[in-house]
Amino acid sequence: NRKLANLSSKLTAIYSDAKACKPNTNECMPYSPDLENLFLQSRDYDTLTWAWKSWHENSGGKMRKAYAETVYLNNKGAKENGYKD
Q: Does 18 have pLDDT greater than 80?
């Protein structure tokens, strides 16, 4: 389905373009490779919490509508293929 593919591309772009920005500074970390590396290597709870929350604040709201529509279309397709849920 073309619409589902477009939504998936949109979600991927939002996900990868969002950055985590440190408060009161101009320092921002792009998801790839900086945040990916931080999430893989760091074990500092406060740093990881800050990075995830900041990234989520910059991506979550932008994703909401497209994500809900993606879930709807996937569920619709599953039902059309004989799945109940």
A: yes
